[in-house]
Amino acid sequence: MYVLIVEDDVRLADAVAQILRNNDYQVDVVHDGADGLSYGEAGIYDAIVLDVMLPKMNGFEVVAELRRRKVATPVIMLTARDALGDKVGGLDSGADDYMTKPFAPAELMARLRSLTRRQGEVVFETAEFGDIKLDLESCDLICGEKSIHLGFKEFSIAKILIANAGRVVSKETLIEKVWGYDSEVEDNNVEAYISFLRKKFEFVGSKVKITTLRKVGYRLDEGE
Amino acid sequence: MYVLIVEDDVRLADAVAQILRNNDYQVDVVHDGADGLSYGEAGIYDAIVLDVMLPKMNGFEVVAELRRRKVATPVIMLTARDALGDKVGGLDSGADDYMTKPFAPAELMARLRSLTRRQGEVVFETAEFGDIKLDLESCDLICGEKSIHLGFKEFSIAKILIANAGRVVSKETLIEKVWGYDSEVEDNNVEAYISFLRKKFEFVGSKVKITTLRKVGYRLDEGE
DNA sequence: CGAAATCTTAAAGCAAGCTTAAAGCCGCAC
DNA sequence: GTGCGGCTTTAAGCTTGCTTTAAGATTTCG
Predict the structure, then answer these.
(1) Which of B145, B119, B121 minimizes the C-alpha distance to B132?
(2) How far are the Cα atoms of B20, B72, B79, B106, B178 from residue B27, in angstroms, in the given order?
C-alpha cells in the first residue's frame, strides 16, 4: 500500500508518515501543492492525503488538476478549517473524503482502509502500451501468452515509463518517483533496473523497446 | 541540469554555484542584469536563479524582457527585501518562484528540483527554423520525413543558432554558452561541431545552411 | 603567392550506460 | 532461531558512442 502525504507542516507530516509506516504502508511526503501534483500525477499511489492550505497550489487546485489529468487515485483532504464552504469545495473538486485537523490517527487509518478497499473492489486496472500489459494488481508483465512477475521497483519503473510512453523520462524523475525525492540512490541503480526490465520485455517476446537517450533519459517506444 | 546564476555579490554567487556543482548541476555565473539577459536569452538553461538588486538591469526587468522574448526558462528570484510589493512584482513579471535571502541551500535545491520537474513534464517544445525542427525533448534534428539524433553538444549549438537565426553568433559566444564561460576549449572544437552539424543538416536534406563569416562567427540562413 | 583562418577526418580519450555477479536485507517457514 | 528465497543494492568490468585532439587539406584575403 503506497500513500502520498502532501502537508506543509513538516512536524505533522512526519508524524502521520511514521504512523502509516508502522502500519506497513509505504509513504512519500512532499510539502507543497506543486510537488503534490507532480508526484500524484505519476499515478503510482493507492491514496493521497492532501492538506488544503499549501504553498504554491492549494489542495483544491491539486485535486482538480489531478482529476483533469485523469488520475483517479483516491484523495483524503485535510484541513484546519471546518467551515462548510471548504467541505463542499473539497468534494466538488474531486476529493473522496475529508477530515478536519486535529484528528485521531486511528480515524485516518480507518478512512484510508475504507477508501483503498473500495478501490480494490471496484477498480481492476491494467496499464498498456504496444503489445505489453501491466497487471496493476499482481505486478505481472503480460505480452500475449507469456507473462512474468515484476518486483516492486521494476514494476514502478515500468508503470512510469508506460504512463509516459513516447516521452522521455529522466533518471532523476525515475529516482524521485520510485525512491523518493530525498533518496540517495545512484543512477546506476536505475540503469540496473532498466537492464532487468529489458531482459523481461525480451523474455515475454515484446516488441516494445526502452530507448536510451544519452544524458537525457529513457523513452518507451513501440518497436517495429 | 544546467543553471544560470545572476547575482552581483560574487561571494554569494560562487558559494551557490559550488553547492549546485556538488549536486551535479552545470552552472554558469554572471554578475549583472545585462549579462543575465543575454545569457538567459540563449534558452539553454533548465533554470535561472536571479537576484533582484543588480547593476545595469534589475531582476524584474530581466525576467520581463526574457518573457517578452519568449524564453520560458523557469526563474527563481532572490532578494534580501521581503516586502510584499517585491513578491508581487516578481511573480507578475514572469518569475516562477521566489526566495528571500538568507536561504538554506537545501531549500534552493528543493525549489530547483520542483521547478525543473514541472517543466520537464508539461512542456514539450520544438525549436524551428526554415525546414528544420529540433525536438527539444529527444534532441533529434527533424526535416520532413528524415530525422537524426544529435549529441548534447551538437544539440546545444544547433539550439543557439536557431534561437539566433539570421543573426551572427561568434565562436566565443558559442564556447561560453555551450562549454561555460571559464572553459578552456579551443576554437577548433567549435569548428569541428559546426562541421558535424553541417553534415547532419545535409543528411536530413535540409536547405538551411550554416554560413561562415570569417573572423566574426556563424549565421543560420534559410538556403535557396 | 603566403599567411591566417577555417574545414574535415581519423583516432585517441573519456564518460555514460550496460550487464552481471555477489552481497545485503527482509520476511517467512520450519 | 536459523535458513531459504526473493527482491534490492552495490560494485566492477565492459561496451558504446560522445568529445576532444591533432594534423593535413582547403579556403580566403591581402
Answers:
(1) B145
(2) 7, 18, 20, 17, 11
CB contact under 8 A, A167 and B124: yes
pLDDT digits (tens, 9 = 90+) for A122-154: 334 567 898 998 887 788 999 988 999 999 899
Q: Which residues of chain A neighbour B114 with C-beta distances below 8 Å?
A: 32, 34-35, 38
* Subunit contact A176:B121, Cβ cutoff 8 A: no
Report the C-alpha dihedral over residues B67, B112, A212, A199, rounded to 10 degrees. -150
Per DSSP bridges, beta strands B75-79 and B97-100 are parallel
Residues 83-112 of A with CB under 7 A from strand C: none
DSSP-assigned states of every residue in chain A: -EEEEE-S-HHHHHHHHHHHHHTT-EEEEE-SHHHHHHHHHT---SEEEEESS-SSS-HHHHHHHHHHTT----EEEEES---HHHHHHHHHTT-SEEEESS--HHHHHHHHHHHHHHHHHH---EEEETTEEEETTTTEEEETTEEEE--HHHHHHHHHHHHTTTSEE-HHHHHHHHH-TT----HHHHHHHHHHHHHHHHHTT--EEEEEETTTEEEEEE--
Q: Enumerate domains of chain A plus CATH numbers.
A: 2-122 (3.40.50.2300), 126-221 (1.10.10.10)
Query: Which of A32, A38, A213 has the CB atom closest to B117's CB atom?
Result: A38
- CA distances A34 to A85, B33, B61, B176, Å, are 23, 29, 26, 33
Note the pLDDT tens digit of each residue in A67-79: 877 777 888 888 7
Q: pLDDT of B103-136, one tens digit each?
A: 666 667 767 766 665 443 333 467 889 899 998 8
Distance CA B215, CA B185 (A): 17
Q: Count of CB atoms within 10 A of residue B199's CB?
A: 10
Query: Which pairing describes strands A132-135 and A140-143: parallel, antiparallel, or unpaired?
Result: antiparallel
Distance CA A129, CA B179 (A): 39
- The answer to whether B210 and B219 have CB atoms below 8 angstroms apart is yes
Rounded CA-CA distance B114/B118 in Å is 6
**pLDDT tens string B132-188:** 999 888 899 999 889 999 999 999 999 999 988 888 999 998 998 899 777 788 899
